[in-house]
């Protein structure tokens, strides 16, 4: 099971869909498109030593369970800003183009998912025998991100020949380059 599948399995899709005023299928689809982009953005950031240190610190702050129905959207927005920087609108637009996801839904979903992604990664780092705060030691953070992203980059093809997973290489590669600090 991939990280995307793991995170999606824990999402209370019906409740979140109702909270956002959409149908569960649309929410599920938007989340499935957004998760690989978030994970890819984190990986791009971790390519730079300062970005990796920042990510390790963020994982330490999100080490513990997160209630998906009570996610701090302001915290999520800060995370998304750090991951995508000034490219957030471009990422949302690209994600919205996949399977015709409405941009406003994608823009609402991403900040709700970001704290869940960090909590998931913190759990994975801790599960690999690394202290979350010391995730840089021994390359544990890079190892975990590599394992997580193996499954995140794969997605079903859409009518335009793109997949949610292709956002990692196509969009984020061009927008983020070597990662943000």
TrEMBL record:
The lineage of its organism: Bacteria, Bacillati, Actinomycetota, Actinomycetes, Propionibacteriales. Pfam families: DUF937. It comes from Nocardioides marmoriginsengisoli. InterPro entries: DUF937. This is DUF937 domain-containing protein. It comes from the Bacteria.
């Amino acid at each position: 099971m991939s990280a995307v599948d793991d995170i999606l399995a824990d999402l209370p899709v019906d409740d979140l869909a109702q909270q956002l005023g959409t149908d569960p299928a649309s929410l599920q689809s938007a989340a499935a498109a957004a998760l690989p982009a978030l994970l890819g953005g984190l990986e791009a950031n971790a390519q730079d030593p300062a970005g990796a240190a920042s990510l390790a610190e963020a994982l330490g702050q999100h080490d513990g369970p997160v209630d998906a129905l009570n996610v701090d959207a302001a915290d999520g927005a800060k995370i998304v800003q750090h991951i995508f920087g000034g490219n957030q609108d471009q990422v949302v637009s690209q994600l919205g183009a996949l399977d015709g996801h409405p941009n406003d839904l994608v823009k609402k979903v991403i900040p709700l998912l970001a704290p869940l992604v960090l909590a998931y990664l913190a759990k994975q780092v801790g599960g690999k025998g690394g202290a979350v705060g010391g995730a840089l030691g021994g390359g544990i953070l890079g190892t975990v991100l590599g394992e997580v992203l193996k499954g995140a980059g794969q997605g079903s093809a859409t009518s335009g020949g793109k997949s949610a997973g292709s956002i990692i290489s196509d969009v984020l590669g061009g927008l983020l380059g070597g990662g943000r600090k």
